[in-house]
Amino acid sequence: MSVTEALDDFESKKILVIGDIILDIYIHGTVERISPEAPIPIVNHQHTRHALGGAANVAANLKGLGADVTLVSATGEDREAEYLGVMLDLEEIAHDLIAVKDRPTTSKSRIIAAGHQMLRIDHEMTEELSPEQSKLLLEKILDRLRQEPPAALVLEDYNKGLLTEEVIHTVLDKARSLAIPVIVDPKQSHFFAYSGCRVFKPNFKECARQLPFPLKPEMESLQQADAYLRGRLHHGISMITLAEHGIFISDGHRSHLLPTEIRQVSDVSGAGDTVTAIATFGIVQSLSLELIASLANKAAGLVCARPGVYAIRKEELIQNHN
Q: How many domains does the structure of the chain reveal?
């Protein structure tokens, strides 16, 4: 099956994404003088752009590839949550967003002038959801799984408190009972909680922090890391993103290390989300490990060439695939 045929077949496949969502805010302006109040630049505001971030960006990438996507997450009771709801509706991404009182919707505001990011302001709470809130979240997730089991399930962890141990284990157990492949993008808090998932996709720094030995972006070292992770997680496929060094992928028998495709890098924000979406597409369509890594490299390169968070589109992937 060609990549084009695989993407055509992926059209309208149901994918469930669960994880921390973020509202990315880009405040653009110009700098012409320094403040008389302090030695800082004065930014003359020109325009503001909002983008789907975190798990919402994974969902947007999957939607761009043609999937029928549902997103389950939590927000605060604020204007940022309203923005996210409207933006998801515009992207035609189905969503169940739990509004949590006294908890802000995670947002990242970037102030940009002359193409350079000058400052980022994060508005967030990283405490885990309470048992009652986790129970409500699980009810929504299990209800979605009962209605119509998806072709794949993505757990997108940004360490913002949504994916508690209870949520992770309950979702993995249910997915296993329904034979649904689970693709995981982990963070450090619950790194080893995702036992038995189909794809485990940390980045190099996240992986290096969890290993009892030094990690290098080289095949022998990465295979050693894969063996260690496999001994702890008993998962199917390791996929480690290596920034400028490319992507490593292994199923415990076959391993591939694909170098990064050289492109002009404008912004690396969201590239990991794109890789997660491509991995999900590859698993659902039973693509080879090498092809999954190759497509992920291409897609990540394309989004990094654009400023801000950007979701890949099916047509772009076809056009740039050799």
A: 1
Helix (H, G, I), strand (E, B) or coil at 307: coil
The token pair at 174 is: 């249910």
Tell me the β-bridge partners of 257.
Answer: 248
pLDDT digits (tens, 9 = 90+) for 263-280: 555 556 668 899 999 999
Q: Assign 130 to helix, strand or coil.
A: coil
Provide the residue range defining the domain that includes 256: 3-22+53-104+126-320
Element (H, E) at 255: strand 255-258
| Contact yes or no for 194/166 (Cβ under 8 A) | no
Q: Which of 24, 68, 157, 273 is catalytic?
A: 273
273 a catalytic residue: yes
Within 13 Å of residue 244, how many CA atoms lie on the same side as its CB?
A: 3
Report the CATH number that the domain containing residue 17 is assigned in CATH. Answer: 3.40.1190.20
Alpha helices by DSSP H, listed for 178-213, are 204-210
**Digit-coded pLDDT (tens) for 88-141:** 999 999 999 999 999 999 999 999 998 888 999 999 999 999 999 999 999 999
